[in-house]
Amino acid sequence: MRSLVLEESGENPRLTIEERELPPLGPRDVLVRVHACGLCYHDVLVMQGVLRRGVKERVVLGHEISGTVVQVGEGVDSFQVGSQVASIFTEPCGDCEQCRWGREQRCVRGRGIGHRIDGGFAEYVKLHQNALVSLPSGVDMDIACIYGCPVGVAYNAITAVAQLQAGERALVTGAGGGLGVHSIQIARAVGAEVFAVTSSPEKEERLREMGADHVILVGDLDFSEVVMALTGNVGVDVVVENVGGLTFRSSLGSLAQFGRMVILGAIGPGRVEISPAELIFRDARIMGTGGATRQQLREVASLVEQGHIHPVVSQSFPLEEAATAYRLMRESKTFGRVILKP
Ligand SMILES: [Zn+2]
Ligand SMILES: [Zn+2]
Question: Is the dihedral of CA 307, 311, 316, 320 positive or negative?
Answer without folding.
Answer: negative
